[in-house]
């Protein structure tokens, strides 16, 4: 899969060069052979005897032909020489074409991927209009939606923070992103876009969107710098992990990480634990921190009971819930809805552009979050 807002022009040019060169060689060989055949036909026609007399005299079995001396002399030598030249051209050109075949295939793959990425970008920006909620190039945004109570009755109109998608493949596998696109997110404005979930898009179109999303994933150093700046602006932590900013609404780095983007809208809450584990977080009206929302409650010692050791919780947040695998002391088999914040699930996939260092949190930041959650 593939599993790049668009591939840079120089890279595409390099990918297309082998295919263009091989194509040129192939056309030259074809043209030479075709011209040679045409010349041979014309020469034979020009040298043929003119047809004269009655039909009886023109019958093939009655008409005299070129004598053996003339036929097996210079005429035969010219014909054989011409054939030898063509054979030499073909004998040289075919190995050259064969040597360039791997490059031609690579160029074809690049062109194929470019087409899929282009289709995905068009769907993101126009067809499915993902850009309306998730912003251009997946920077994050907001979606206006209706807030309903537990009886399905209208309560208010809210602006729901739509997470940035330029790091979505840092934490979700391509298959998990496919499922989200296919079936949507319950209890959120994210609708089902795939035909299996009742949406308008085919499986191929969903994978095209994922192909495009892979091209806009931010470099690891850019992500790290953005997170560090957000922490500096909202917490200004000291060496002990305490927030020192006078107007900071958080006490520790762990609390700031848990709620990253709550007050600033940073990345649409893509880095935050609170957007799933705190009711009302996504529309700026948070309830009890970690009290449960789309995700389970983490309060009243729930995390300590689920993860008896500090390290086991660190490992879980690092890796996330694995489909079909139970977690913690009482956790049911995961379905992939809890992503891993310290391990990139796409880095080892064949053909993926992702790298192992493209992760959401550092180990130190994950440990700070775990320390905060175990105290809720």
Structure overview:
The chain is mostly helical. It folds into two domains: 91 residues; 243 residues, no CATH class. Helix content is 48%, strand content 5%. The protein has 15 helices and two strands. It has a two-stranded antiparallel sheet with strand order 1-2. Helix 1 packs antiparallel against helix 4, helix 8 packs across helix 9 and helix 14 packs across helix 15.
Question: SSE layout and pairings?
Answer:
Blueprint: H1 9-47, H2 55-58, H3 68-71, H4 74-99, H5 101-127, H6 131-134, E1 141-148, E2 154-162, H7 168-171, H8 174-183, H9 203-215, H10 220-234, H11 253-258, H12 274-277, H13 302-306, H14 310-319, H15 363-373
Antiparallel strand pairs: 1-2
Helix pairs in contact: 1-4, 1-5, 5-9, 8-9, 14-15
Keywords:
2 domains; two-stranded antiparallel sheet; 376 residues; mainly alpha; single chain
Number of domains: 2
Structural class: mainly alpha
Task: List the uncertain runs.
Answer: 3-16
Rg (C-alpha, Å): 34 Å
Strand proportion, as a percent range, falls in: under 5%
Quote the distance from N terminus to C terminus: 40 Å
Looking at the structure, what is the overall shape?
Answer: elongated
Largest sheet: 2 strands, antiparallel
Helix content: 40-55%
Number of helices: 15
SSE order in H/E notation? HHHHHHEEHHHHHHHHH
Mean pLDDT rating: 86
How many strand segments? 2
Q: What's the arrangement of strands in the largest beta sheet?
A: 1-2
How would you classify the quaternary structure?
single chain
